[in-house]
Amino acid sequence: MEEKRLVYMDHAATTYVKPEVLEAMLPYFTENFGNPSSIYTFARKSKRAIEDARDKVAKALNANTDEIFFTGGGSEADNWAIKGVALANREKGNHIITTKIEHHAVLHTCEYLEKRGFEVTYLDVDENGVVDLEQLKNAITDKTILISIMFANNEIGTIQPIAEIGKIARERGVLFHTDAVQAVGHIKIDVKEMNIDLLSLAAHKFYGPKGVGALYIRKGVKIDNLIHGGGQERRRRAGTENLPGIVGLGKAIELATQDIEGHNAKLITLRDRLLNGIMDKIPHTKLNGHPVHRLPGNINVSFRFIEGESLLLLLDQFGIAASTGSACSSGSLDPSHVLLAIGLPHEIAHGSLRLSLGDKNTEEDVDYVLSVLPNIVQRLRDMSPLYEDFLKGEK
Amino acid sequence: MEYSEKVQQHFLNPRNVGEIPNADGIGEVGNPQCGDIMKIYLKIDNDVITDVKFKTFGCGAAIASSSMATELIKGKTVEEAWHLTNKAVAEALDGLPAVKMHCSVLAEEAIHKAINDYRVKKGLEPWEDKFSQGGHDHHHHEHEIE
């Protein structure tokens, strides 16, 4: 076995917490721990810290401070946006439009609403994972109350034409929610310019802590509460605030949005070096997702004749952490709904690998992966009856 | 979902990988759509399995099951190999996660297919196979098969 390094290339799953973020959070565990809902000095410090974080999130999105509501993460924000709008606008209509490649936090929420009398249109995407705007326009009816389309896909990295979708939604008087969990901190977002009415984000995707997120709700949007109880978050989301988490989210979003272009330039250079190396060294490989309009750190490839979980296990032996859209890693038997939606046959979707790079990855990491991955793919192909059949067919 | 040490060992160092040219029996089961294909080659002398090899397209559990199953039938008579159950394969691997039990079923099924291929080639009646009854689909085996 070659020298073992530790290479983390699964930043789309989660990121580490930056030291500056952790440092900002620590006093709110130990010294400034007051419940923000109380009235004494301890509490006022906590309250100020939350409002400071809210300012930072608003600034990052070009939103107003009172349009930001903290949640327990991205999934909660998605649930709140979709269920909240659906229930509050029931008299206006019962139709929701989304896509086939959304995160399960959106898809399962839509399925839940379907069982309760709502109708949902699941838009197709093209082979690169991009929504067809004409299909979107045609899907809107006078019963449509919400369009929910993700900003960037968590598996294949494709970025949607969000400003155009926002324009269509605004012109037709339909609310537009975007699950921007993968996009915030990686793509410049302006909710006003893009006509976004609701936007979900999660801190742990941009070097903040897990278990905290936010929902942007444009002023004037009619939405029901999801979590009932006390009067926190201006009576919109009950529950004692995750004070250190919110402080961490604020710091993380501030850092992540300071210099998105500069950060991306480095990531894109590394990503292209890795992608070009993979395509050069490993035959029968396909890039999934849009070749240009994709997240700067995302690579998603399918290797024919092999299965993704085996690939991940072998990569792990070499200290490389990655992800797959293959069924076997998830407990379900179907490969990723995203890979199927972009038209990959099952057998090719099973052999997919997602490498998502982050700000600690180096050229040495990339070269290490390139020194290990081709041998692993070949090892699995040598064991695969599909490859054997392919070779016999070639002879 | 965690694999036992045994599963990991067999996945990382699978025994009996490869093909047998002019095998006496070959069994291939599964399909690429499901993400699992297992192919087993048998060399049989005097009713004893003298060599066995496999090729598998699939997850860690599928590869480990193939490796363990081939180990368990090597040197056994054809009849003894026929009676190897998926449960025995899983137990020999110190267990498989519930969602991966179908991988051990695949191994049992591939062995049965290879044995019947051998029998047919020898002009014998194939043995009655529970997998051939009612359009079996290994992915529907959510429960253990005895």
From TrEMBL, chain A:
Active site residues according to the UniProt entry: C328 (cysteine persulfide intermediate)
Cofactors: pyridoxal 5'-phosphate
What are the protein's GO molecular function terms? 2 iron, 2 sulfur cluster binding; cysteine desulfurase activity; metal ion binding; pyridoxal phosphate binding
Q: Which Pfam families match?
A: Aminotran_5 (PF00266)
EC id:
2.8.1.7
EC top class named in words:
transferase
Query: What keywords are annotated for this sequence in UniProt?
Result: 2Fe-2S, Cytoplasm, Iron, Iron-sulfur, Metal-binding, Pyridoxal phosphate, Transferase
> Where along the chain is [2Fe-2S] cluster bound?
C328
Q: Where in the cell is it found?
A: Cytoplasm
Pathway membership: Cofactor biosynthesis; iron-sulfur cluster biosynthesis
Q: Does the keyword Cytoplasm apply?
A: yes
Q: What is its main location?
A: cytoplasm
Key word Metal-binding present: yes
* Residues that hold pyridoxal 5'-phosphate according to the record: G74, S75, N154, Q182, T240
Which reaction is recorded as catalysed by this protein? (sulfur carrier)-H + L-cysteine = (sulfur carrier)-SH + L-alanine
The Aminotransferase class V domain extends over: 7-369
GO CC entries: L-cysteine desulfurase complex
Post-translational modification N6-(pyridoxal phosphate)lysine, affected residues: K205
What are the GO BP annotations of this UniProt entry? [2Fe-2S] cluster assembly; amino acid metabolic process
On assembly, the entry states: Homodimer. Forms a heterotetramer with IscU, interacts with other sulfur acceptors.
- Please give the HAMAP family that the UniProt record associates with this protein: Cys_desulf_IscS
Reported function: Master enzyme that delivers sulfur to a number of partners involved in Fe-S cluster assembly, tRNA modification or cofactor biosynthesis. Catalyzes the removal of elemental sulfur atoms from cysteine to produce alanine. Functions as a sulfur delivery protein for Fe-S cluster synthesis onto IscU, an Fe-S scaffold assembly protein, as well as other S acceptor proteins.
Q: Which family does it belong to?
A: Belongs to the class-V pyridoxal-phosphate-dependent aminotransferase family. NifS/IscS subfamily.
Q: What is this protein called?
A: Cysteine desulfurase IscS
Source organism (scientific name): Caloramator mitchellensis
The gene that this protein is the product of is nifS
UniProtKB/TrEMBL annotation, chain B:
Give the NIF system FeS cluster assembly NifU N-terminal domain ranges: 2-122
- Classify the source by domain of life: Bacteria
The cross-references to PANTHER family, in alphabetical order and at most eight, read: IRON-SULFUR CLUSTER ASSEMBLY ENZYME NIFU HOMOLOG (PTHR10093)
Which Pfam families would you find in this protein's record? Answer: NifU_N
Q: Which gene encodes it?
A: nifU_1
Biological source species: Caloramator mitchellensis
Q: Which InterPro entries match?
A: NIF_FeS_clus_asmbl_NifU-like, NIF_FeS_clus_asmbl_NifU_N
Q: Which stretch is the leader sequence?
A: none
One of the protein's GO biological processes: iron-sulfur cluster assembly
Name of the protein in its database record: NifU-like protein
Q: Which GO terms describe its molecular function?
A: iron ion binding; iron-sulfur cluster binding
The record ties this protein, via CDD domains, to: IscU_like
